[in-house]
Design a protein that fits this description.
By secondary structure, the protein is mainly alpha-helical. The protein has one domain. It contains 9 helices and 4 strands. Strands 1-4 form a two-stranded parallel ribbon. Helix 2 packs antiparallel against helix 9. The longest helix has 17 residues. It is globular and about 50 Å long.
Amino acid sequence: MNVLKSDNFIVQINSYTKQDWKPLLNLIPEIEKVEKFGEISKRAEKLLEKGIIEMPPYVENKIFEEFREVCYDIPIIIDFDWGSWDEGRRIVSNKDFDYDSIDIPTKCKIITAIVRNDRFCDGVLISYFESGVMLKVLKSIQKQLRFES
């Protein structure tokens, strides 16, 4: 897995060309078509009825595997203390936040925090796709790249 170092991620991300971003931005139409991003597996549901918790309990849409893969391949995942990043928490919890008001490296920090958090708290990525936050972030990256051309 490719991960950007926290000391040079801004320079690295700002050096990416539109072609570098294409695999991620090409996912936008696919994401927009998804009706259901994930659900609790039937097996987990039955076990829960018996008081047994199965991890991970969710069955994710196939788009997630591709999304994660692209995020690490470009790479846009950043090695930083995302768990202590209060600004990011405030941004994603504000449903009216204007993602166009932040730069692309900050958007990548948001993606990183969500993707990394999902490894520790199953279902986080699903919830950010279902809420529309992730699509807003991706569309904002796409929009900003068009303005910079």
